[in-house]
Amino acid sequence: MSMRNPLARVRGMGSSGGGVHHWRAQRYSSLLILLLTSWVLWMGVSLAGADYATARAAMATPFNAGMTILLAGAVFYHMQLGLQVVIEDYVHMAGLEFSLLILVRFACLAAFLISAMAALKLLLGA
Amino acid sequence: MSTSKRPVSPYMLGPYYKFQITSVLSILNRLTGVFMSVVTAPLLLCWLIALASGETAYAGLSAWLGTLPGKLVITASVFSFCFHLFGGIRHLIWDAGWMMEMPQVRSSGWLAIIATVVLSLIVLAAGS
Fold it and tell me: For residue A79, which residues of chain B lie inside 8 Å, CB to CB?
């Protein structure tokens, strides 16, 4: 018999309430992407096969630049959360799992920052 | 508990497991998500970088997108996006506590498949 009380035993181990934030963040980011879907499809269809000048002009409006940055933020956040779950489910070697989780976080953050810089460059025309 | 030849979960796929629309769509939602993470999102990022880098880079990427591998990647990306979209909507509906009876789950699954095919074909036709 252990003298530790049940609360002390679960604190910091497993279900300590941290999962709720992940779950909510995944749903809220999916809602944001859902709201942006018609814009994404519209841009994709209208810029499919577009020449340089057309694509450049389309991405140079404040609305499209803002939507691009918003989408990149939502998508790369949602992607990080989703890949995290897949890695946690299927990768069982602790070192590899940890490395992949960190790599995914860094890659998603970098991808978001690069997207935002590119969108700003296209908007400001540098 | 007898140590038997009963299949345990990691090995259940294959000869032991009868595929059902619920599990197949669940796996597909993950697969399409991973596919878009590994292929589609990096491609869109490359497109953005190429456009911001200048005409030469953009022309190079555009030329590749016009080849057969490029077209295959675009087609697979559109189908993945549409499937993940409708699969995600199903999950959001379940999260709200709705449509959780088995007949509803099955019919929403088939609806998601039909909607995926229809929307994908519309998008691909409109973009070509």
Answer: 33, 36-37, 41
Please judge whether A119 and B48 are an interchain contact, meaning their C-beta atoms are less than 8 angstroms apart. yes
Structure confidence by residue, pLDDT tens digits, A11-40: 666 555 677 889 999 999 999 999 999 999
pTM (predicted TM-score) = 0.88
> What is the distance, to the nearest Å, from the Cα of residue B87 to the centroid of all Cα atoms in its chain?
8
Which tokens hold the place of A66? Answer: 């803002």
Domain spans of chain B? 22-127
Cβ–Cβ below 8 Å for B41 and A82: no
Looking at the complex, report in whole angstroms how far the Cα of residue A4 sits from the nearest Cα belonging to chain B: 31
Hey, of B9, B13, B43, B48, which one would you mutate to test binding to chain A, going by the most A CBs within 10 A of its CB?
A: B48
CATH code for the domain defined by A21-124: 1.20.1300.10
What is this model's ipTM?
0.88
- Which helix (H) or strand (E) is A8 found in, with range? helix A6-10
The CATH class for the domain spanning B22-127 reads: mainly alpha
In which element (H, E) is residue B69 found? helix B68-95
Q: Phi/psi at B98 (nearest 5 deg)?
A: -100, 160
Instruction: Tell whether B71 lies on the interface with A, counting CB pairs under 8 A.
Output: no
Contacts of A75 (CB under 8 A, 6+ apart): A33, B41
